[in-house]
Records
---
Amino acid sequence: MIHAVDAANIHQYRCEMEAVWRLRHQVFVEEMGWRYLDRPDGREIDQFDTPAAVHLLAIDDGQVIGYSRLVPTIGPHLLSEVFPHVCEEIPRGPHVWEWTRQAVAPSHRARGTSRLVTMRLLAGIVEWGMANGVSSVTTLMPMSYLGPFLDAHFRVVPLGLPTEIDGKRTLAGQAHFDARTIRRLGEMRGDPTPVLVHRPAPALVA
């Protein structure tokens, strides 16, 4: 299932967030070669991991198997601070959040498994967005992602021309979603039930 972790409940996810930082280091530093993110403690944390961020964790049998991050566009975010040159315009507002740091654990990258984890994370993003007045996400996506996004019934609006980043043709885009996106993701997962779960707060001891 997918857990939405924010400033209000992050204290309940200390162990899982440690796993997140190490998964991000493994994926983005060790595998993708983003050496500027390297840290000696093996935890990838950047300037956008603020209390305003929302972390979407795919958890299976107590293990973090996938991850995505949402950052509000009303403040500093990756497109506004690091990649403004790839956009002709940068949509901003409370209804637009930025989606970054998509990752699937190596243990769940077998044929078909990685896609299922990704579909669950996308469903979690849409469910969280629709519950919180968010109707679109901005993101930098490899051009190979465009077809799957459209197939999942996101309405993608390019924010600039494709450009090469880290050797891949990449597009800055705004992906709009609504209830049709939720239904389509359910069809693609083979399960129409919601993916977001809520960890109850620990009971107070009298």
Note: Residues 2-197 form a domain with the Aminopeptidase fold (CATH 3.40.630.30).
---
Amino acid sequence: MLLTDPVTLENDVVRLEPLEEAHAPDLSAATIGLEHAWYTSVPTPETIDDEIARRSAWRDAGSMNPWAVRRLDTDRVVGMTTFCNIDQPVRHVEIGYTWLGVDAQRTAVNSSAKLLLLGHAFDACDAIAVEFRTHWHNRQSRAAIERLGAKRDGVLRNHRIGPDGILRDTVVYSILPTEWPGVRRGLQERLARA
């Protein structure tokens, strides 16, 4: 299976559905309350259609595989996630462009989605590395990535210029196939306790 293949992934908590326009109403509602996050890129209710179109265009170009995150206990789409910066010949991928609505944060949703994505990357797509990147100032995201068991590869200084002109330092993490069994067990244990 290719990292770019559209596929639905599901466990007891979430279903990751290939992103489509029909997800827009739930996604618009899920963006409410995320306006304060200057260090990450979350669409607004007014820009959600454009964001779906942008991610769909990247999917069509082969560089992204986007999903809507559906929380099964409410049957609501509560965010988005992707395989991005896909390098299929090398079988290297980043999990990124992820955001969850306020009601889904600090729940089992993120861990459950990451368990599905990592399992798909390593077990179905034979990835040699899964990478995560986040803004230096996004301490919540950095902590979540570290709780997964990803190892910090380093910091890309002045990596990007934000829309507001502020320079971004990007923290890079990764998980390798040999680390996946331990990461999987850690996620399963955390979800069992939740």
Note: The chain has a mean pLDDT of 94.
